[in-house]
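User: I'm preparing a small set of examples for a lab meeting where we compare how different chains pack in three dimensions. I only have the primary sequence for this one, and I'd like the structure in token form so I can line it up with the others. Please keep the answer compact; I'll paste it straight into my notes.
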Amino acid sequence: MKARPCGDAAVLIDIDDAESIEAGLTVQDGVLSIHQRLKDAQQRGLEGIVDMVPAARTLLVMLDPKIQPPRDFVAKMESLHLETPAVGNLSSGEDIVTVPTVYDGPDLGTVAELWGVSADDVVSMHSGMTWKAAFGGFAPGFTYLLPTGDFPTVPRLDSPRPRIPQGSVGMAGAFSGVYPQQSPGGWQLLGHTDLAMWDTSRTPPALIQPGQLVRFEVKND
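Assistant: Understood. Below is the structure token output for the 221-residue chain.
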């Protein structure tokens, strides 16, 4: 784990591959673990953190420099015991978000063929897996979800669609996710949900937060 000031009001923490592998974790688990450790430290009285933004391999910690100057925060990190924990100590993310999903996506048959199973099997596999929210991306309310167990991957579409409907549930690579608004996209679409992923009247506006567990629940149209 390496940390360095990022401007005059933030610190960027890079997760070390070797440390994560030694602990039996993915790099993303390492990011989420440190994110949780810092939230725990805030509960114990650590001041000056304004916000935190997890990414695939890094954690950006935004600070109030009047309370927590970036260089002071970097120097203080060792005392916060942010080392990547052993697997058994990783946060279990008991807060589970359930996403009712109608599995009627246009790529359901394609994914079934790629995996060598039936469309019903794809539905059972996707809805039977527990997913972990890794980080947000590309649009407000879009969260990249990783499977908590072994799960087959799918390629992106060769040609992205110009319009993906809001609420579309898709997969690309190892990730699953829900499109929070209509937008272009190249993910394989398995179904859709009526849940709002982004709502500015909600606190926080994003339905799914990094570190939470997510289950897709089969819903009949």
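A couple of notes for your slides: Residues 96-218 form a domain with the Cyclophilin fold (CATH 2.40.100.10). The first helix runs from residue 17 to 22.

User: Perfect, thanks.
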